[in-house]
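Sat 14:20. Reprocessing the chain from the morning session after the first attempt stalled halfway. Input below, unchanged.
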Amino acid sequence: MSTAFPPDVAGDRRHDHEVCLTRTLAAAEQVCGERGVRLTPQRRRVLEAIAAGHAAVGAYDIIDALAASGPRPAPISVYRALDFLVANGLIHRIDSLSAFVLCASPGSSHRAQFLICQRCREIAEMRSDAVDAAIGEAASAVGFAVSSAVVEVTGICRACSRR
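Finished this time. C-alpha cells:
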C-alpha cells in the first residue's frame, strides 16, 4: 500500500507548498499536452484554488477564492473547469464531502482510495492493490461488473489527533 502524502502534510514544517504547487501545475501542463487538450486560464485558476491546500474544497469555496483575486466567476464556468480536471485525471471528486482534491498521480488511470480527516478535511490519497482486489473479488462473486470504485475512509488524521 502506498499513500501519496501524509494526512498531516499541512502541519509538516518540511513541506514546501510552493514547490508542491509548482509540481502540480507542471504535471497538469504535461498531462494536458500529452492528451492534446488545453489548460485554459480558467481551468488553471480552478486547479490553483484546489492546490492551495491539501484539504477538500467545495465548488463554492473555489468560486469565493477566485472572486478574491478578480471578478466572481459564473458557477457554470467553475463546474465546467472541474469536470475537465476530473476527466483528465488532475483532481478527484470526494463524493461524501461534495468537494474536490488534487490527484496524487495526475493523468494516470487508477481507482481512488482516500483517507479523509473529519476535523480538518485534509485528504490522503492511497493506493492499495489489496483493496482493489477485494472489491473485484467480492463483485465477481455475485456477478457484478464494477465500472467505478471510490473508497472513502473517514477518521482523524495524525495532526488533529495530536491537538
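The two ends are 27 Å apart (CA to CA).
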